[in-house]
Amino acid sequence: MGRPWCATTPNYDKDHLRCFCFSEAYGGNSNGQRCTFPFVYKKQLFYTCTNAGDKMGHFWCATTHNYDRNKLWSDCPDTILGGNAAGKSCAFPFLYNKQMHYTCTSDGESSGHLWCSTTRNYDVDKKWTYCSTPDYDRPSHGKPCVFPFIYKKFKFHTCTNLAEASGKFWCSSTDNYDRDHRWSHCPA
Q: What are the angstrom distances between the C-alpha of 23 and each of 26, 71, 101, 172?
């Protein structure tokens, strides 16, 4: 077939009912404009699509960083939903493999896709969802922050606006900015 599809009943082998999946954002009041991650909804930060606030349980995303202010949204591409807790928000920081994670990670994911725990302790709860990769125009091309990171020989555990003329907060996308010079803007 060549196109992603999903069953529309619990048993495809029996019913043979399916539909094609959307691979890009569609609908909403943004006319299918691309998702923006992370985004703020009801003062909470979302790194994935959510069905929060949708009476029908459909997954959606904001198309700006602040839904509370702009009220712009699209339906999510079906191809980015996944995990055993899809629609739940990432819980940062979270424990995975006895290590704290402050951003989405690809650790343990053979496909390389970014994911996060939806509880503070993945090792115990095993609840997760995929994270969507933002398409920011920045040197790290959508790579997540790595904490702690080294900048000018100091260790940072949060985003900083040092040496940023615009005042925007940023982080290193490797553990050592001094060595790698890879960075990303932090969510507003």
A: 9, 23, 28, 30
Q: What is the pLDDT of residue 5?
A: 64
Under 8 Å between Cβ of 76 and 57 = no
Question: Looking at beta carbons, which pairs linking 169-177 to residues 24 or more positions away fall under 8 Å?
Answer: 171/145, 171/146, 171/147, 172/145, 172/146, 173/140, 173/143, 173/144, 173/145, 173/146, 174/146, 174/149, 175/146, 175/148, 175/149, 175/150, 176/149, 176/150, 177/149, 177/150, 177/151
Q: Which pLDDT score is estimated for 51?
A: 82
**Which of helix, strand or coil describes residue 70?**
helix
Q: State yes or no: pLDDT of 136 exceeds 50.
A: no
Query: Tell me, what's the pLDDT at 132?
Result: 58
**Domain CATH number, residue 66:** 2.10.10.10
Does residue 104 form part of some domain?
no
Residue 126 has pLDDT above 60, yes or no: yes
Identify the residue whose tokens are 């959510």. Answer: 50
Could you list the residue range(s) of the whole structural domain that residue 31 is in?
A: 5-80
8 Å CB contact between 28 and 39:
no
User: Do the domain assignments include residue 58?
Assistant: yes
